[in-house]
Design goal:
By secondary structure, the protein is an all-alpha fold. Helices cover 33% and strands 0% of the residues. The chain is built from 4 helices and no strands. The chain is globular, with a radius of gyration of 18 Å.
Length: 129
């Protein structure tokens, strides 16, 4: 689909292997793919002006959070599955697609409907009550 992205997991240095591939469809008038290197992405964020400090911080916090999820194998590691190895590529890919939500005491979570933009999903409570 025009405007789609792929390869961001590898480009951000989160996994060495790719979780997606792209192929031009039959009958397509043509397909143009623009390649942006991981170094270029990282340099763009390093070169941001002071006015974009918030975006810069959000970007690096997202990378740190995703790396932590990957290292811990969350959410699958929370489920005490027999034979699960945190080093399995599928564990890492799922960890990077999972949305981590943190709450403070008194917060209320209202899950989205299955017909929402993210579709049907499963929630895993890692800690707390």
């Amino acid at each position: 689909l025009a405007g789609s992205t792929f390869g961001e997991i590898a480009a951000l240095g989160l996994l060495e292997s790719r979780a997606a591939s792209a192929r031009a469809g039959p009958g397509a008038a043509g397909c143009c793919v623009l390649r942006v290197s991981a170094e270029d992405i990282q340099q763009a964020f390093l070169d941001m002006e002071e006015a974009a400090d918030h975006e810069h911080e959000v970007y690096w916090n997202l990378i740190a959070s995703r790396k932590e999820q990957l290292e811990q194998g969350v959410p699958l590691a929370c489920m005490d599955l027999v034979g699960l190895r945190i080093t399995d590529p599928c564990v890492g890919i799922l960890a990077l697609h999972a949305e981590r939500i943190e709450f403070v005491s008194g917060d209320l979570w209202s899950p989205l409907a299955d017909c929402g933009p993210s579709g049907a999903h499963v929630s895993v409570i890692d800690s707390g009550q």
